[in-house]
Structure formats: C-alpha cells, structure tokens
TrEMBL record:
Gene (UniProt): LOC113706877
InterPro entries: Cyt_P450, Cyt_P450_CS, Cyt_P450_E_grp-I, Cyt_P450_sf
Organism of origin: Coffea arabica (Arabian coffee)
GO molecular function: heme binding; iron ion binding; monooxygenase activity; oxidoreductase activity, acting on paired donors, with incorporation or reduction of molecular oxygen
Protein's name in the database: Cytochrome P450 711A1-like
Similarity comment text for this entry: Belongs to the cytochrome P450 family.
Positions that bind heme: 482
Length: 537
C-alpha cells in the first residue's frame, strides 16, 4: 500500500488503522487455511446433516460416546434417534441402519447402488487386507465372488466333512484330563487348522495334542511348529491390529481423525524403528511374502488335483479369461489369507459362545444331549443331509447363540450413487452401516432379548412366525452376505455333535459373568471362555 502523507493523515483522523500488505496477505492465508480445514472436517458431515444424530466433537466425532457405552452405543442411539441415524467415527460420519426392513432395502432392494464396502482406516493402512473379497469393489468384486462361489458348491462342502471331523476328533481327545481350560483358545486353534487345511491344503497342526515320542519325526515337527507358530503369530498380530477404536497404530488413529494424513504418515512411520506402524508393516510384508510363496509354488505344481480352496480357485481361474485377468497372484494370496482370517476368528468365537451359553443353561443342555444321543451310535459320522435336516434343536441353539453374541455386529457398505433410505437422501460415497447387533437385541422381534432361549427359533413358535425375516442376520444380507456361511455352520454342527457325544461343560470358577468382550473388526473375548470338560459315560 503506497499512501501519500496527506492521505495517511486523513485516514488516521477517521480512526482507520493502517494495515501493511504482508499483514493482509498473511491474514488472508490464515483465513483461507482455516476455511479449508473447516471444509475438510465438515464436508462429510454436511452431506448427511439431515440424518439425525447427537452433537459431535470436531475431529473426535462420537468416539467419546463409543468409549462411554461400548458397542451398546448403537442401541442407545437407535432408541433416541430412530432406525436411521448418524454416528461419527472421528471425522467420518456413518449412517447407521438399525431396522430389518431398511437393512433389506440396503442389502437387497437397492444393492445396485450400495454394492461396495466402505474402507475403514485400519484397512486403508493394510494393502494385504484390502485385496481380499471383503473390500474389493465393483466389477472386480463380482468376478472374484463368482469364481469363489463355484468352490462353495454343496457337493464340495460335503466332501470336507471327513477332514473337518478328523481335526475335531484329534483336537478334543481327553479334554476331561485338562481340568479348567480356556476353551476359546482351543477352538481358535481348531478353527485355524480346519480352515488352513480347507483353504491352503496345509495342516498347521495347532490343535492336535502333541504326541512327541518318535524322535525321528520330532526334529522336523519342531521345525514345522516354529514356522507355523510364527506364521500364525504374525496372522494374529496383523489381525488384532485392525482396531476400530483409538488403540491402533498412530497412522490408523490419524486415519480416523484426519484421513488425508494417514498414508503420508504411514509411509514415514513405517521407516522409523520401534513404531507400531513399522511392526504392522513388517508383519504384513512377511505374511504377504509367505502367502505369495505358497501360491506361486501351487501354481507351478502341474497337477492341481487337491481339493483345497487355493487349488480350486487356481483351477477355476484357469478356465476363464476374465477371472484370470482379475485374479492375479496378489489377489489370490489375499483371498486365501482372508479365508484364514474370516474363517477362524468368527467360527471359533461362535463355537466358544455356544459352549459358554449351553454350560449356563442346563435345560438347553438336556434337550440338546437328547437330540444328539437319539441320532445314532456315537461313532456314526453325520452326512451333509443329516446336518441339514436331523438336528433341528441344534439349529435353534446355534441361531440363538449367534443372535445373543453377534460376532460381526456392524456391516460396512458405501453408496456408489445417490440413494434414498428411510426417507433420507444419501449422496454418492455415503458410508452406510447395517447394525446387525442392534437388530438382534430388538425387543420388537425378540421378547426378553437378554435371555438365551433357543426355542424362540422353533419354526412352530409364534415369535418365529411373526418375526421379520432379516431380524437375525449374523451372516449379513443379500448378494454381499458371508460366503463362508455354510462352511462355518457345517463346522459348528460337526464340532457340537462330537463334543456333546463325549462331554458336558461347566464354567470354571474363574470364568467372569457376564462374558467380557473386546471390539475389533469382529468381537473377541477379553479373557476367554474358561470351562471344565466332564466326560460322559
Ligand atoms: C460364524 C462364522 C461367520 C460369521 C458370523 C460371518 C459373518 C460375516 C458377515 C456379517 C459378513 C458381511 C456380510 C454382509 O456384508 O452382508 C461376512 C462376509 C464375509 N465372510 Fe464371513 N462369517 C463367518 C465365517 C466365515 C468363513 C468360515 C469364511 C470363509 C471360509 C468367511 C468369509 C467371508 C468373506 C470372504 C466375506 C466377504 C464377502 C463379500 O464381501 O463378498 N466367513 N461374514
């Protein structure tokens, strides 16, 4: 600003302060930055501001509410704000849907426009987890899903029964001699072994009690044990780091609060020794290397005649060009790994909760034992048909346990076009999450929802007849629902039949009540399910 002396005098007389050019430009820059930051922080909220929800803090959003109420926060908010409401995971608003009919609308009727999943910050930091079926999108997802579906034919699942049965038998020998045991640890090893065999064709040998008296085999077993244990430890580390709250690595936390900074910070932090980001990155790199190695070796083997999931995908992929283009080595590794991940934690959690709940309900146990005993001699292995039709009460027990403890209480989806749900217009890119856990505890569909009552799923029960068909959907809804549903139900039923033919279970004296849970991508136990097995005569 170049002002003559007279002009300066004149301005000062009117009390107008003089502002130098650098001050103006600095002020302007600060204001622009502030506006940009506010726009960045509030833009996602602005798009869905008409959806009701509690007031949220800048950056933190509703995370303090999550800390206060734990996962019950969604049931609490549904009561206050209705079946469609906003919950801000840091900066990111989620539109939560907590009504079975609206969930059907999102999952099936409007699937065309809500077919992808949103990618939460822990996954955004993990390329390994992003390339599985769960997070792939659009055409790549449908091609991958169709190829994988061909592997899930009922006839193929039926062929897996003897394999599953042999793992279950080996893992559950002499449980009575163990006294108080952490059943959830055993069931995680068992489920990992079963899926390891089914997915990779590899026996991890985690759940078998170690014989260890043949010295010739001992060395190679020990070597194998170390490698397998290492692989599994890395798998568990990589999985448990996928936290949804504020306990993950620094870049993951940043991803919740200011997503734009997540990737640059991850790139820097992964190079700094001692950071959690570095450890997560190295673990994921190691796992990726190992998985790629397994896949590359299997691809080289000329005869792909084994029945494991990996070989079947490789074969299915060979027969179709589109599938070959999409299913590159890194995606095959990721999908196979995803099976290990999705198939072990969920199934083992469910088996452990069933054992926990049945042990605390003697009247349920009595009815279950009767059904299992009446099926036939104890060494008669059930067929796929038996499992489907001849254990109706077991069916009810499993459904009720999965309702009671919904292992995956939230299902993540994202709109790919503007869409109207429950009267609210949601723009393209809105994160829409189905609150399966809230549906499962809604007294409108489940009388006394906090009671464990398998009979509520009896087809002749009035409550069952009147209930909305999607009120209990632990495996999700529509074309994007769990691909491993039949696999895990088969494994759960075989395990339950075998276990209750041999044992009943009682809670250990140090088993906390109620069960305490940890909330990651799926539910887990804080301390585990502790029981004592009593041998049946
Ligand atoms: C008790 C056991 C299990 C439960 C409760 C469970 C639950 C779920 C849920 C809720 C979803 C999201 C569905 C949706 O968006 O509507 C899902 C997806 C998925 N599950 Fe499972 N799951 C279980 C076992 C398994 C097993 C054994 C496997 C593999 C063998 C598996 C593989 C998958 C995959 C790959 C997806 C992603 C599907 C897609 O996006 O197309 N799950 N699961």
């Amino acid at each position: 600003m170049d002002l003559s002396g007279a002009k300066v005098q004149e301005l000062m007389e009117f009390g107008i302060p003089l502002i130098e050019a650098p001050v103006v430009s600095v002020t302007f820059t600060v204001l622009a930055l502030l506006a940009g930051t506010l726009w960045y922080l509030y833009r996602p909220y602005w798009a869905v501001r008409k959806v009701p929800g509690p007031p949220s803090l800048p950056l933190l959003g509703h995370l303090p509410l999550l800390a206060k109420y734990g996962p019950d926060v969604f049931a609490v908010l549904a009561k206050t704000y209705g079946p469609v409401f906003r919950f801000h995971m840091g900066r990111q608003p989620l539109v939560i849907v907590a009504d079975p009919e609206l969930c059907r609308e999102v999952g099936i009727k409007k699937f065309k426009d809500i077919s992808n999943r949103s990618i939460p910050s822990p996954i955004a930091a993990s390329p390994l987890h992003q390339k599985g079926l769960f997070f792939t999108r659009d055409a790549r997802w449908s091609t991958m899903r169709n190829t994988i579906l061909s592997v899930y034919q009922p006839s193929h699942l039926a062929k897996l029964i003897p394999t599953m049965q042999s793992f279950i038998e080996a893992a559950t020998e002499n449980l009575e001699s163990q006294g108080d045991m952490t059943f959830s640890e055993l069931s995680l090893k068992l489920a990992t072994d079963v899926i390891g065999q089914a997915a990779f064709g590899v026996d991890f040998g985690l759940s078998k009690p170690k014989a260890g008296n043949e010295s010739a085999n001992r060395m190679s077993h020990q070597q194998n044990d170390i490698e397998v244990q290492d692989f599994i430890n890395q798998h568990i580390y990589s999985t448990t780091q996928l936290k949804m709250d504020l306990s993950g690595s620094f870049s993951i936390i940043l991803g919740l609060l200011v997503p734009i900074l997540q990737e640059p910070f991850r790139q820097i932090l992964k190079r700094i020794p001692g950071t959690m980001d570095r450890k997560v990155d190295q673990t994921n790199q190691n796992l990726t290397r190992r998985l790629d190695g397994i896949v590359a070796k299997r691809m080289k083997e000329k005869s792909l005649d084994s029945k494991d999931f990996l070989s079947l995908i490789l074969r299915a992929r060979e027969s179709e060009t589109t599938s070959r283009n999409f299913f590159t080595l890194d995606y095959i590794s990721a999908v196979t790994y995803e099976h290990l991940l999705a198939g072990s934690a969920t199934t083992s959690f469910t088996l452990s909760t069933i054992i926990y709940l049945v042990a605390g309900h003697p009247e349920v146990e009595k009815k279950l034992l009767k059904e299992i005993d009446e099926f036939g001699p104890r060494d008669q292995m059930p067929t796929a048909h038996d499992l489907q039709h001849n254990f109706p009460y077991l069916d009810q027990v499993i459904k009720e346990a999965m309702r009671f403890y919904t292992v995956s209480p939230l299902v993540a989806r994202e709109t790919s076009a503007e869409v109207k749900i429950g009267g609210y217009i949601l723009p393209k890119g809105t994160w829409v999450w189905l609150a399966l856990g809230v549906l499962a505890k809604d007294p409108k569909n489940f009388s006394e929802p906090d009671k464990f009552k398998p009979e509520r799923f009896d087809p002749d029960c009035e409550e069952q007849k009147q209930r909305h068909p999607y009120a209990n959907s632990p495996f999700g809804i529509g074309p994007r629902a769990c691909i491993g549903q039949k696999f895990s139900i088969q494994e759960l039923k075989l395990s339950m039949i075998h276990l209750y033919r041999k044992y009943i279970f009682r809670h250990s004296s140090d088993m906390e009540k109620p069960l305490e849970l940890d909330y990651g991508i799926v539910l887990n136990f804080k301390h585990g399910v502790r029981v004592r097995a009593i041998k049946r005569t």
